[in-house]
C-alpha cells in the first residue's frame, strides 16, 4: 500500500514550504514583541508589529514563496534571492506576492552566502532553512514548522487505521526530511520505520554524507530538474537527525522524478490523480523505478519492501513550473530509456 500526502493545495501556494517560513517569522516576531505564540491569534500578531521589517532568504522556489506569502499576510517586506537557472514562473510567483526577487549568477549555496552579506548590510532578518555556526535558531523553527506535515500525516493514518512501515523523504539541505523524520521516529521508533532519503544525483550531499558518516558538500551547478532539491551543503541540524535515524540514502537520476510525475498524473484504477512537480514526485518515482527494474526482486529486498509494506511518500509540490510539467507528463521528457 502506498500513501501519498499531497501538499500542492496548501494555502494556494502549490507547496508545503510556507509551514516552515511562516512559523519561523511568527516566532521571530513573538520574540521581538514579547508575545506568546501558544496563545497568539493572527490578528493580534499583525496588530502588534511596529515598524516594518524586511525578511530575506535564498530559495529554489517554494521556501521563498512561503516567506514572501507570510510577509505579505503580515504587512511586511520580503527580498527573495534565487540561484541561476531559476524558472521564470517560480520568479513570477514570488513577485506576485509583493516581494522583491533577485536571480543571481551563482548556485544555491553561494546565493545563500550573498543573501547573508546583503542582509547584514541592510539590517534585514534572514529566514533561511539551513544552518551554520551562529545561525541555528531560525532553521530550528523552520524544521519545527515542517514537522506539521508529519503530525497531519500521523493523524490521517490513524484515522485510516494504518501504520507505515516505510517512509520516503526527499532532501535538499535536509531540513524537511530531518524535521519530518524526527517527528515520525518519535511516534513509531526508528526500529519500526524503514526510512529512505532520496536526492538528485547532481546534488546528493546527504547521500554522500550518509556514505561517509559525516557532512560532505557538493559544488558546481547541480543541474537537475528537481530544482527544489538542488542544494549542495547539508543543514547540520537536519543531518544529525538523518544520520542517526535514516535507514537508507538513495541518489537518483532526473528520469526517476519524471517517472514519478507521470505515474501520479496518470494513476491506476480508481486512485486519485495527483499533480506533482519534479521535487515532489521523486519518492514515488523511486518506487515506480524499482517496480519496473529488471532486478526488481533484489531491489525490493534491499529496501525491505513486500506485499505487507505500507509506504508513506510526500508530494511536496504541485506543478510549480507548468511548462516543464507538461513537457514531462505530456511529451515524455526525461523518459526512462528502454
TrEMBL record:
Keywords, ordered alphabetically: Pyridoxal phosphate
Cofactor section: pyridoxal 5'-phosphate
Domain Tryptophan synthase beta chain-like PALP intervals: 2-292
Pfam families documented for this protein: PALP
EC number from the UniProt entry: 4.3.1.15
Keyword Metal-binding appears in the UniProt entry: no
Top EC class, one word: lyase
Coiled coil regions in record: none
A GO MF label: pyridoxal phosphate binding
Record-linked Gene3D superfamilies: 3.40.50.1100
InterPro entries noted in UniProt: DiNH2opropionate_NH3_lyase (IPR010081), DiNH2propionate_NH3-lyase_sub (IPR019871), TrpB-like_PALP (IPR001926), TrpB-like_PALP_sf (IPR036052)
Protein name: Diaminopropionate ammonia-lyase
Amino acid at each position: 500500500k502506498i500513501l501519498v500526502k499531497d501538499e500542492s493545495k496548501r494555502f494556494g501556494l502549490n507547496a508545503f514550504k510556507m509551514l516552515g517560513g511562516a512559523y519561523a517569522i511568527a516566532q521571530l516576531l513573538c520574540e521581538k514583541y514579547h508575545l506568546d505564540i501558544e496563545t497568539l491569534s493572527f490578528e493580534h500578531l499583525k496588530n502588534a508589529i511596529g515598524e516594518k521589517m524586511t525578511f530575506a532568504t535564498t530559495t529554489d522556489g517554494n521556501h521563498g514563496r512561503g516567506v514572501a506569502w507570510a510577509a505579505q499576510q503580515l504587512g511586511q517586506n520580503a527580498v527573495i534571492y534565487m540561484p541561476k537557472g531559476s524558472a521564470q514562473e517560480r520568479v513570477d510567483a514570488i513577485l506576485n506576492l509583493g516581494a522583491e526577487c533577485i536571480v543571481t549568477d551563482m548556485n544555491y549555496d553561494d546565493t545563500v552566502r550573498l543573501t547573508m552579506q546583503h542582509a547584514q548590510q541592510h539590517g534585514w532578518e534572514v529566514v533561511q532553512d539551513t544552518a551554520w555556526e551562529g545561525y541555528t535558531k531560525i532553521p530550528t523553527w523552520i524544521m519545527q514548522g515542517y514537522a506539521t506535515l508529519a503530525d497531519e500525516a500521523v493523524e490521517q493514518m490513524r484515522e485510516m487505521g494504518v501504520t507505515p512501515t516505510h517512509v520516503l523523504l526527499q532532501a535538499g539541505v535536509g531540513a524537511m526530511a530531518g524535521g519530518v523524520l524526527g517527528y515520525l521516529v518519535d511516534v513509531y521508533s526508528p526500529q519500526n520505520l524503514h526510512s529512505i532519503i532520496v536526492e538528485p544525483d547532481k546534488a546528493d550531499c546527504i547521500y554522500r554524507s550518509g556514505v561517509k558518516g559525516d557532512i560532505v558538500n557538493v559544488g558546481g551547478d547541480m543541474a537537475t530538474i528537481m530544482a527544489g532539491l538542488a542544494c549542495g551543503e547539508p543543514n547540520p541540524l537536519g543531518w544529525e537527525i538523518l544520520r542517526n535515524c535514516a535507514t537508507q540514502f538513495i541518489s537518483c537520476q532526473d528520469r526517476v522524478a519524471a517517472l514519478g510525475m507521470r505515474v501520479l498524473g496518470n494513476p491506476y484504477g480508481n486512485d486519485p490523480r495527483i499533480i506533482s512537480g519534479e521535487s515532489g514526485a521523486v519518492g514515488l518515482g523511486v518506487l515506480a523505478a524499482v517496480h519496473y527494474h529488471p532486478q526488481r526482486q533484489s531491489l525490493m529486498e534491499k529496501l525491505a519492501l513486500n506485499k505487507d509494506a505500507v509506504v508513506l511518500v510526500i508530494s511536496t509540490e504541485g506543478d510549480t513550473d507548468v511548462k516543464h510539467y507538461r513537457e514531462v507528463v505530456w511529451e515524455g521528457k526525461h523518459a526512462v530509456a528502454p
